[in-house]
Amino acid sequence: MLEIKNLHVSVDGKEILKGLNLSVGAGEMHAIMGPNGSGKSTLSYVIAGREGYDITGGRIVFQGEDLTGMEPEVRAAKGLFLAFQYPVEIPGVPNTTFLKEALNAIRRYRGEDELDAMQFVKMMREKTKELGISDDMLKRAVNAGFSGGEKKRNEILQMAVLKPTLAVLDETDSGLDIDALKIVAEGVNKLRSPDRSMLLITHYQRLLDYIVPDKVHVLAHGKIQRSGGKELAMELEEKGYAEFGEAAA
Amino acid sequence: MVASTNTMEQVNDLAEEKYKYGFVTDIESDTAPKGLSEDTVRFISAKKNEPEWLLDWRLKAYRYWLKMEDPEWAKVKFPEIDYQDAYYYSAPKTSGDGPKSLDEIDPELLATYEKLGIPLREQEMLSGVAVDAVFDSVSVATTFKAKLEEVGVIFCPISEALEKCPDLVKKYLGTVVPYTDNKHATLNSAVFTDGSFVYIPPGVRCPMELSTYFRINAKNTGQFERTLIIADKGSYVSYLEGCTAPMRDENQLHAAVVELIALDDAEIKYSTVQNWYPGDENGVGGIYNFVTKRGACRGRNSKISWTQVETGSAITWKYPSCILQGDNSVGEFYSIAITNNCQQADTGTKMIHLGKNTTSRIISKGISAGRADQTYRGLVRMSPKAENARNFTQCDSLLIGDQCGAHTVPYIESKNKSAIVEHEATTSTISEDQLFYLRQRGIPPEAAVALVVNGFCREVLQQLPMEFAVEAQKLVGISLEGSVG
């Protein structure tokens, strides 16, 4: 599904990722854990194709295709989704308008028929019901005035609508109290499926109490330092990142 | 750094799309001699079989105009206008005395409307909108007259109103915008060729939206439309004005005048979607749109609401205003102005509070892209007798790219201690974060920009009648395709 080979990435001329290797199979849930400044967000942005994150070596292969140089909207159309650490506010644009525009842009790209207003509304009702999200959120402007928890739930809702084959969840737990965290985790778990891979990027182990990954990787100094099972996260919780030359957070 | 440079490139790419409505229709013109003189004024008046008083009024305006200076306070730049290098009257030739129905309309003219996506037939059949279409200077088709006549509404070209109800025209013409008002309005008074006249009798709620589409067509012909709308006591009317113009090389002067009069308890809602040719990427060939629009709330509890979506013209100089004379009267101004490439706009409103408990609301959304320059200029005046008058003003500017400009110039004069004036202003840009977020969701850059801008304008778009809102939303997208996204 996702193969990252010897990836080097620079931002403003400074090398952040220094030979990162990662392989995620179909339907797998991988967690990337690491201290602040280790390159976690850089990894999520470079996968999504954000401008300014330059690949200076290695490559990212998604579903057999090299992503280098591919526009972000094309990556999205090919099934890549990034749940943002800080979801962006778009004042005046109702959530439904935004989601319909996004879904139909993706469908157009794939040569599928666009959904008309009726079909879309019906589909949205199903999704909000499934995730226990109030319809009120659909009418409000995208993320504008949303609480931290609402913003993260909105990301999950978007994932449910756009049905990606690979979802990168960047610090989805940040800024959430424990109740909000549980709700968001529940949403993520509902969206797990054999044909959807997920990459969970997090600083803390606590998210993994609710979302159980197949594999855990430790990212530090721009490289995967260690990989293991769920127990690796427990170990990190106990010992911190000191072992990787970082102060405990 | 890298990221913002990239946004700029996208914006520039998107700015290249051509004006979609640029085409010229070939129609024989019956044109006045070139240039401006008393003879030109007399020619126009004679062409239209006007009464003596109107010719006198035109001539007074012309003589006054000769002594006037161009208004210079607006923040726009353009070469001096050579008024002698233009034609002031041009009418499409028709067989007989004019068309009795759409069947008699020049097929080429109908095709022109088709290209603009506003086929008259379809409008007549489907939308229930009465259309008084202006092609160059003479109205060629008026529909739905019968239905309007049933309730006593008069909706016709102003030249026809002069025959039908000369007293009404004489009573109100020039009472809101006097011929001495400003150089552009004075010129219009001298040489106006046609325009719409609307009269809504007391207590009548006009059963349909009234709509006029303006087009500039004959080469080198300035357009001087004159619109007069009177809403008698307790009546209501919603009027839609929209325009697109064909592509051409020389700058064209468009100096329209619109006068609105609302008597006791009457309400006028006036909506405009303006899409005149803005010129090419370097600003060559666009329309000069120097318009004087003013409404008088003469009666108690009367209301006038202006909504405008301004996307076209090389230069826009326009301040739809309200004179709030009647006690408790209400004035509103909702505006979206989009400037791109080399477009310049100096637009805003004037709210003149004269009566007690008068209220006004100004919501202005300005979007500037490319090398365009835009100014909101608004006056709120609370006169000594305007007890408890209130105004709320909100001016938001959105900048796209780093070569455009946005300016907000509010003038506030309050001579009454009980009056309250509020002014809020913001300036923002489309952030790289927003663009990336939308693109990550699969939305291509141009559509992403259009989405953000439509969101920015939402408050104003919501004020438009349904038929117009959809069109306006598309137009916002198109202007930004043709200019930004």
Written overview of the protein:
The complex is a heterodimer of chains A (249) and B (485). Chain A has 249 residues and is α/β, with parallel strands linked by helices. Chain A has one domain (2-248): P-loop containing nucleotide triphosphate hydrolases (Rossmann fold), CATH 3.40.50.300. Helix content of chain A is 35%, strand content 29%. In chain A, β1 and β2 (14-24) form a beta hairpin. The model of chain A has no long low-confidence stretch (mean pLDDT 92). Chain B has helices spanning 2-14, 38-47, 52-66, 107-115, 120-127, 145-150, 158-164, 166-172, 183-191, 432-440, 445-461, 466-481, and strands at 29-31, 90-92, 130-135, 138-142, 154-157, 196-200, 210-215, 226-231, 236-244, 252-254, 257-262, 267-275, 287-297, 303-310, 315-318, 321-324, 330-339, 344-353, 359-368, 373-382, 390-399, 405-414, 420-429. Chain B contains 12 helices and 23 strands. In chain B, β3 and β4 (138-142) form a beta hairpin. In chain B, 26% of the residues lie in helices and 33% in strands. In chain B, strands 5, 6, 8, 10, 11, 13, 15, 16, 18, 20 and 22 form an 11-stranded mixed β-sheet that branches. In chain B, strands 4-3-7-9-12-14-17-19-21-23 form a 10-stranded mixed β-sheet, covered by helices on one side. The two termini of chain B are 21 Å apart. Classes of the chains: A alpha/beta (249), B alpha/beta (485). The interface between A and B is medium-sized, with 35 and 28 residues.
What topology does this entry show?
The complex is a heterodimer of chains A (249) and B (485).
Chain A: E1 2-11, E2 14-24, E3 29-33, H1 40-48, E4 53-62, E5 65-66, H2 72-77, E6 80-83, E7 90-94, H3 95-109, H4 117-131, H5 136-139, E8 141-142, H6 148-162, E9 166-170, H7 178-190, E10 197-202, E11 215-220, E12 223-228, H8 230-239
Parallel strand pairs in A: 3-10, 3-11, 6-9, 9-10
Antiparallel strand pairs in A: 1-2, 1-4, 4-5, 7-8, 11-12
Helix pairs in contact in A: 6-7
Chain B: H1 2-14, E1 29-31, H2 38-47, H3 52-66, E2 90-92, H4 107-115, H5 120-127, E3 130-135, E4 138-142, H6 145-150, E5 154-157, H7 158-164, H8 166-172, H9 183-191, E6 196-200, E7 210-215, E8 226-231, E9 236-244, E10 252-254, E11 257-262, E12 267-275, E13 287-297, E14 303-310, E15 315-318, E16 321-324, E17 330-339, E18 344-353, E19 359-368, E20 373-382, E21 390-399, E22 405-414, E23 420-429, H10 432-440, H11 445-461, H12 466-481
Helix pairs in contact in B: 2-3, 3-9, 7-8, 10-11, 11-12
